[in-house]
Here is the input.
Amino acid sequence: MSQENVEIVRTAIGAFNEGEFDRVLAGLAPEAEVDLSRAIGPIRGVYTLDQTRRVMDELAGTWRSFRIEPVEFIEVEEHVVVPWTYHVVGRDGIEVQARSTWAFTIRSGAIARVCMYQERQDALEAAGLRE
Here is the structure.
């Protein structure tokens, strides 16, 4: 089951990188929650499925281009923890990289929860793993 979970997350990241937000949202459960309460910047909070679309549109409008580069996919029961680097180019051409770790919770073949962590260890502990 966990390899299926990794593929669900890979598909969502691929769709995000292609700017296909409808495909990203199609992989989320109706009751999905996206937790960006640990984010640094103007977009912070915990979002429902409907609110998540607006957040993605706002992010896309901020950057000329954006791309998630996963470092690895760590399977922990119903969770997939993904440390990644986010590459963005601003409207003025300034390039920025940000590293964070995201924990995805998969239930019934859909992403039920996504939570962003600044530190990899925090995400692993939330998923029930210690390094």
Q: What stands out?
A: The mean pLDDT is 93.
